[in-house]
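idk why but the lab printer keeps eating my pages so im just putting this in chat instead. protein + S-adenosyl-L-homocysteine:
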Amino acid sequence: MNANLKLLIQDEIKRDGPMRLDRFMGLCNAHYYASRDPLGRAGDFVTAPEVSQMFGEVIGAWAAQAWMDMGSPSAFVLLELGPGRGTLMADMLRAVSGVAGFAAAARVHLVETSPVLRAAQGAVLKGYDPQWHDDLGGVPDDLPIIVVANEFFDALPVRQEVERDGVWQERLIAVDLTWNITPLSTEKVREVSPAREVVMAQLAQRMARGAAAGLVIDYGHAWSGFGDTFQAVKAHEYVDPLMHIGEADLTSHVDFEVLARVAADAGVHVEPLMEQGAFLKAMGVEARAAYLKGKGAANVEADLARLIAPEQMGKLFKVMVMRYGQ
Ligand code: SAH
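predcted complex ->
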């Protein structure tokens, strides 16, 4: 637990009253991501790009196809939201280095707030001259755009409402860092994330200025529903989300129905949601695995299974493909 952050949160609660979950989650995650590289075996959690280079390679192929579908523009914004260690972007660019003109046309832009992770991204993307932004506001809006976001939206703050006797009440955090209300069952909880909707709206409005394609990949559900999915992960274990302030990764499942509606409202075309396993297979990940195995790469079978098997990341993770202007 970060003592300073805990005091800051408690002072705010003393001053303003019990704190909404999205405020708490925003403060905790800002500190959490700013102060460490949370990824990998030695960290708190492992993401698909960190499982295997195959993930980024296949997404690179998707991006190259999207670029060709736009008519191979000589300059375009290649944007990633929340790039972590920069592994996905580096794997994408390396995989499609054989696609004539793609890398030369790509202007790499990264939305990232963490100074630690910006440094990691700069190290692996040396040579691509990436430009960083705190939010979508500074991303150039006069070029075609291809955007990817993997495990980004789940980290943005969420609110919870709890039903008691037919009344939905905001779930709040008291000064002793306990909940004001405990749900009688998970069905009595609903989650909403104004923060995710705002970012999606900004992204979709940016996309709707010209030719655009986007991929949002995250764990979540296709349809809005009920349930408490707020979780904290530390050293690969689930922990109590109100303990370990600023020292655990706070997330919740992404409501893709809401994101798709927000994108569609801006005029962006959203394809039917796919499960990650089906998407990666459709994009040729098995052929890529066979190729890497033939080259003598280690662990290919196990890594492939981790990415596509239904009981691993294949089913829980969803892929939302967006297009505009083609
Ligand atoms: N996409 C990477 C990392 C996922 S972790 C991967 O798949 O490995 C979440 C990422 O989003 C981190 O890079 C984190 O610093 C960034 N992030 C979290 N909240 C953010 C915010 N509000 N604004 C910008 N970036 C944020």
